[in-house]
Design goal:
alpha/beta, Rossmann fold, 5-stranded parallel sheet, 10 helices
Amino acid sequence: MMCVISLALEVIAHFRGDMFPPLLAVAVLLLLSPLLLVGVSVMFVWCGVTSIRKEGLRLPNVLSIAFPVVMWSALAFVVWSLGAAGSVSPAVVYAAVLVGMLGLYVSFTFAALFLYSVLYRMVPQRADFDFIVIHGAGLMPDGSVTPLLAGRCDKAFRVFEGGGSRALIIASGGQGPDEANSEAQAMCDYLVLRGVPREHILLEDESANTYQNMANSKRIVDEVSAERGIASPSCVFVTSDYHVFRTATYARRVGLKADGVGSRTARYYFPNAFIREYVAVMLEHRWALVLLVAVWVLGVVASSLRM
């Protein structure tokens, strides 16, 4: 909604003379906003149903259904509570205000991160890198790469070829308790079959999460660069498109200067995967939510004191 308002103001600023075009544009935008929200909700539900049909009824596959249901339910509660403010207890109104504040925060940050994840795939990337880091993503029962991980490896292979097949590829991923071998080894085997020379692949098989992927890969980049006399190594990490933003924050945190490239995710799977990613990002920035709740508490206290 904030994006729509900003766009409306820009349109008005552009048409300063005749007021009819900007007013018409604002009206169209306001009419399209609810339709856009409904369209996104329907798309999310469809993706959730498709995920359940293809991969079974599991919690990760119902997130894209639960998200719009919760958001629309919250909106209905806020509208009802504020509309009946004179006949309901103040506690209900206070709760509606908190739900509304949280809803606006979630809507804005969710939309911003979603647009970033979608648009980032369209940003041109340089092709010549010294190191290409691939992030693991789980394995099949037989120890081979999953379709999701194969997509990351394929994207890395295209980057490798685009740079003249000179880069060193760091396959990053440890071995889980239910995995036959490490993700790094599975990626290495897959890339060798694709035609990558074995001597161009370095294994990082100790990490158990994304942060460790970046920290351990940074250590390998530093060590190899020192051995080969590379003063300013150029790096790129390859992960799924929905995962690029959080991975980039970890890269900055560990001091690894690297571009990010996202492999495409199946359309029906993207909303569920993105919601999990969004929750992870919000948990890492939970102090913003704490501050929001603190502001609400102060408002409730101030309102109570005036009564």
